């Protein structure tokens, strides 16, 4: 609706003018409301178009990936690629179309109208006030009459100027509204016209290809039906065959196209101490006998040159259908599924030997190669323990004071924990902790995950109250608000990052405070030194006929025993050995500089987890090296202190289990020297290198043997046997032997839950049967 206002009428300021103004203002207000609604709908349509285009892009990418996967079929690959390109062009056209849809109506004219209205309303009120004042001026007071007259004259002059401007804005707005609206909508429609016209042109160019593919598709359907009939016929023919003598079909073929003269499944006996049997895919190829656990694995060579081996039946073991391939360096025991298959494999190996001699000749020097591989009991090969899970772990951890509520927001009944910090968390805070990265927080479920005994002890030694005293020491001083249950996630996340990543609320100690802390911890170390475990002395020389490890008949005797106890007192020594000599006492020297790393160093020996956590919060490097004390690390000092939980805390916070001191000794060396069996077990689980030698060329096993520590010797040898078993399984073996895993986990649980049972020292007894 177009409403114009007469300029002459506005000067009269008549009721008719006022009614027209009121009508215009209502119309403009309604117009503005509808335009705002239309702009919002337009923005919503643009957002929906962007989402549509994004989904289309993902669809096109899927088509491209399908085309790349079909590289062997040229028709499918080329067709899908062309279709993807065309659809991508349509997406580009659509994007251009929506970019041109932004509606920009006469906002500036509306703003000018509103400003003119404000001035008009103001001057109208002033004019009305001037008229009233002029009418009320008394006749006998000439100066008031003159003043009122002057004010009324000025006000009327200003009113005429303002009202004319206001009417001008009204008429301009009413004049432009039609053209502006039609202009915007026409631009919108032309954008769509261009989009559909481009799409039509694009698919018109694509139509010949689509017709061609339609014709090819008919032939493809016919070919697929024919292939289906042929396969059904072959299926029926094979199904009617007699498979009762299927094992006779395995034959030796030296001229096979793929170079594999013979292949099939056999059971192989491992060369480790447990002699486990595993089913593997064997083959004879390139004059070698190899096997695979999985098809993608690289073949493991059993015999590198068949000219050097012999094959024979094995009837002296309990299993049936066994045969043995013997080379100069090793032998391999295998088992077939039947007697016929055993004979076929033996014949195949014999024929391969003959073929190898015929092809290469046997008068030359034969290369004898041996391949060895070493491994470690790393995290990939850790034994699966049977620790606490579910309610048992939950009850133990929540029983610690302060742990019944989330450490960061106070949510009751938390079900998650950060194992390197030793705190409990609600589900929201646990998700935020996961996003920080494992170098800040390692999150584990208290009800869904299994909990090793060492970790449970670590959680019980720390807890929310201890950690908050460290990480929130200055929170109230800085006026920071602690989140509450139900607070927005972004607020909780900001607080957690400030607390653990930026460590904003940690109170930094002064130099004097740090010095007093370190000296206090060193005094604790001196009190502990009197009760630390000592290195057992070497056993006395044994007679040539009877020595530890063999009996009178020369048979090997192995007594498997472990001492996982974390007790400070040493295990009882056998009566046949002299008493232990005291270890060298550590003396505290005034350092050149006091640091948080030095605090962590002495706190690790003093077994004080709160002081260790405080040192890490103050920025201590977990692998800090004390250059003034033989380059020892906090982990080595934790070994000296004899606490399994202290070592676990450092390892959970990224301590290097293989870092060596100035003598070339790592944590495993020191644990072996001190006879700390539980720590030896822990370090092997965490990937300690048991083959590392110190500056005296001594490995942990060498030290344990010299100290006659049967517990640790047996533990290290079991780990070594597991390495040999993994070597026999092939280069891609990870888990190791299940029997070894069971033994390892049983003793690990006993070490943590009932160490007194293992607080013993086994030695060789000639009278023992």
From TrEMBL:
Nucleotide-binding found in the keyword field: no
Cellular compartments annotated: Cell membrane; Endosome membrane
UniProt membrane topology term: Peripheral membrane protein
Region listing for Disordered, in residue ranges: 360-388, 516-550
One Pfam family linked to the record: ArfGap
Principal localisation: membrane
A GO term, aspect molecular function: zinc ion binding
Gene3D superfamilies, A to Z: Ankyrin repeat-containing domain, Arf GTPase activating protein, Arfaptin homology (AH) domain/BAR domain, Pleckstrin-homology domain (PH domain)/Phosphotyrosine-binding domain (PTB)
Record note on domains: The BAR domain mediates homodimerization, it can neither bind membrane nor impart curvature, but instead requires the neighboring PH domain to achieve these functions.
Protein's name according to its UniProt entry: Arf-GAP with coiled-coil, ANK repeat and PH domain-containing protein
Higher taxonomy: Eukaryota, Metazoa, Chordata, Craniata, Vertebrata
């Amino acid at each position: 609706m177009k409403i114009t206002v007469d300029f002459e009428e506005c000067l009269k300021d008549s009721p008719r003018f006022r009614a027209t103004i009121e009508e215009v203002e209502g119309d403009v207000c309604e117009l503005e409301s509808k335009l705002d609604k239309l702009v919002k709908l337009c923005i919503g349509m643009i957002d929906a178009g962007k989402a549509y285009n994004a989904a289309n892009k993902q669809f096109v990418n899927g088509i491209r990936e399908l085309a790349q996967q079909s590289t062997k079929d040229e028709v499918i690959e080329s067709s899908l690629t062309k279709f993807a390109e065309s659809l991508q062009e349509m997406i580009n056209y659509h994007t251009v179309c929506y970019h041109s849809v932004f509606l920009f109506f006469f906002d500036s004219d509306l703003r000018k109208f509103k400003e003119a209205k404000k001035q008009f309303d103001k001057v109208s009120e002033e004019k009305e006030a001037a008229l009233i004042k002029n009418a009320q001026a008394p006749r006998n007071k000439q100066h008031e009459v003159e003043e009122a007259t002057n004010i009324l004259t000025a006000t009327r002059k200003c009113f005429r100027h303002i009202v004319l401007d206001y009417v001008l804005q009204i008429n301009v707005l009413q004049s432009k509204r039609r053209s502006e609206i039609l202009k915007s909508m026409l631009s919108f429609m032309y954008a769509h016209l261009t989009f559909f016209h481009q799409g039509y042109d694009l698919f018109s160019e694509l139509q010949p290809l689509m017709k061609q593919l339609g014709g090819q598709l008919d032939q493809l359907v016919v070919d697929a039906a024919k292939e289906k009939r042929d396969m059904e016929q072959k299926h029926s023919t094979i199904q009617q065959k007699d498979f009762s003598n299927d094992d006779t079909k395995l034959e030796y073929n030296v001229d096979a196209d793929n170079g594999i003269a013979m292949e099939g499944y056999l059971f192989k006996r491992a060369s480790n101490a447990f002699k486990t049997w595993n089913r593997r895919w064997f083959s004879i190829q390139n004059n070698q006998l190899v096997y695979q656990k999985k098809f993608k694995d690289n073949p493991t060579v059993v015999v590198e040159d068949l000219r050097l081996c012999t094959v024979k039946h094995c009837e002296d073991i309990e299993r049936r259908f066994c045969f043995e391939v013997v080379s100069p360096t090793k032998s391999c025991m295998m088992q077939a599924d039947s007697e016929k298959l055993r004979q076929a494999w033996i014949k195949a190996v014999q024929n391969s030997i003959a073929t190898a001699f015929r092809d290469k000749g046997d008068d030359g020097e034969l290369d004898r190669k041996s391949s060895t591989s070493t491994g470690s009991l790393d995290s990939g090969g850790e034994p699966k323990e049977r620790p606490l899970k579910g309610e048992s772990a939950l009850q133990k951890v929540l029983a610690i004071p302060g742990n019944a509520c989330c450490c960061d927001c106070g949510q009751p009944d938390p079900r998650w924990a950060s194992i390197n910090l030793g705190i409990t968390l609600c589900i929201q805070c646990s998700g935020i902790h996961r996003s920080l990265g494992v170098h800040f927080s390692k999150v584990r479920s208290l009800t869904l995950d299994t909990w090793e005994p060492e970790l449970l002890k670590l959680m019980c030694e720390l807890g929310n109250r201890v950690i908050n005293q460290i990480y929130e020491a200055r929170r109230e001083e800085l006026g920071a608000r602690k989140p509450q249950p139900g607070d927005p996630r972004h607020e909780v996340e900001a607080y957690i990052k400030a607390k653990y990543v930026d460590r904003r609320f940690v109170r930094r100690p002064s130099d004097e405070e740090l010095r007093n802390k370190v000296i206090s911890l060193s005094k604790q170390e001196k009190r502990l030194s009197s009760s630390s475990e000592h290195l057992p002395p070497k056993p006395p020389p044994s007679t040539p006929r009877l020595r530890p490890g063999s009996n009178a008949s020369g048979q090997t005797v192995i007594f498997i025993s472990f001492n996982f106890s974390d007790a400070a007192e040493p295990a009882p020594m056998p009566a046949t050995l002299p008493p232990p000599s005291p270890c060298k006492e550590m003396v505290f020297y005034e350092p050149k500089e006091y640091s948080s790393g030095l605090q962590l160093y002495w706190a690790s020996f003093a077994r004080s987890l709160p002081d260790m956590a405080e040192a890490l919060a103050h920025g201590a490097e977990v692998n800090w090296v004390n250059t003034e004390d033989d380059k020892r690390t906090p982990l080595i000092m934790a070994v000296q202190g004899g606490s399994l939980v202290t070592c676990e805390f450092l390892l959970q916070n990224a301590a290097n289990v293989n870092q060596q001191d100035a003598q070339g000794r790592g944590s495993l060396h020191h644990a072996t020297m001190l006879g700390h069996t539980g720590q030896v077990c822990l370090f092997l689980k965490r990937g300690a290198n048991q083959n590392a030698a110190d500056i005296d060329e001594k490995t942990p096993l060498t030290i344990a043997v010299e100290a006659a520590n049967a517990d640790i010797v047996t533990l290290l040898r079991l780990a070594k046997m597991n390495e040999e078993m993994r070597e026999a399984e092939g280069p891609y073996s990870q888990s190791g032997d299940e029997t070894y895993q069971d033994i390892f986990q049983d003793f690990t649980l006993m070490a943590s839950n009932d160490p007194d049972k293992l607080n013993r020292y086994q030695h060789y007894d000639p009278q023992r049967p």
